[in-house]
């Protein structure tokens, strides 16, 4: 198992380096493309012609999204860079999360049935807290609760929040029950885990 995690860590470290240098190279390419689009580089220059013929078609989907959202077409390279960087960060974070979960599962398996029970309790409370967090963030961006990406958070947190709303009043326009529920779940998790 140790060799597996050693290989996983090596691959993850290599992926971090590769994504960093890819993002750096794309930053240069997108920066030049932005200079071409804003005519800071002569449009008849061979570099400008190359970028219009090779890079701009690749950025066309991003440009359409930017324009449909009311943005300027010249900002498409920067938005593409944001997507690449955020996508890389999310990928590395997800792989790190998977690694940590695999380590937790391996450690729980070594502990026997008690370790597996502790792992299941911990994962259950972590999923509930994550659902509360996503629900709060989605309310800030006015994402529909019926969206397939968000609906599950409402389904598993509403049984917790509905009773709290009957007891705890709102503070002005702010519903503080998700914050209280988060802390109650943290407290309950630590109590149950210490009892196991």
Walk me through what this model shows.
The protein has 196 residues and is an all-alpha fold. The model has no long low-confidence stretch (mean pLDDT 86). Helix content is 81%, strand content 0%. The chain has two domains: 1-111; 113-196, no CATH class. It has helices spanning 2-37, 46-54, 56-68, 76-111, 113-140, 151-167, 177-195. α5 (113-140) runs antiparallel to α7 (177-195). The protein is flat and about 75 Å long.
Mean pLDDT: 86
Strand content bin: under 5%
Helix content: over 70%
Uncertain stretches = none
Pattern of helices and strands: HHHHHHH
How many structural units, i.e. domains? Answer: 2
For the biggest sheet, the summary is:
none
Q: What class do helices, strands and sheet pairing give?
A: mainly alpha
Mind telling me the C-alpha Rg?
A: 24 Å
């Amino acid at each position: 198992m140790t060799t597996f995690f050693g290989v996983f860590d090596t691959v993850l470290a290599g992926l971090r380096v590769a994504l960093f240098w890819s993002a750096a190279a794309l930053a240069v390419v997108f920066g030049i493309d932005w200079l071409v689009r804003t005519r800071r580089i002569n449009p008849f220059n061979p570099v400008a012609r190359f970028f219009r013929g090779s890079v701009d078609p690749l950025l066309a989907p991003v440009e359409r999204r930017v324009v449909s959202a009311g943005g300027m077409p010249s900002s498409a390279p920067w938005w593409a860079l944001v997507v690449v960087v955020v996508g890389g960060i999310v990928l590395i974070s997800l792989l790190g999360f998977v690694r940590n979960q695999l380590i937790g599962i391996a450690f729980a398996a070594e502990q026997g049935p008690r370790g597996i029970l502790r792992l299941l309790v911990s994962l259950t409370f972590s999923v509930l807290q994550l659902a509360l967090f996503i629900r709060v963030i989605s309310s800030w961006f006015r994402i529909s609760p019926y969206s397939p990406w968000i609906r599950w958070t409402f389904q598993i947190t509403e049984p917790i929040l509905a009773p709290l709303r009957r007891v705890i009043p709102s503070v002005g326009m702010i519903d503080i029950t998700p914050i209280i529920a988060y802390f109650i779940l943290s407290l309950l998790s630590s109590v149950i885990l210490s009892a196991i």
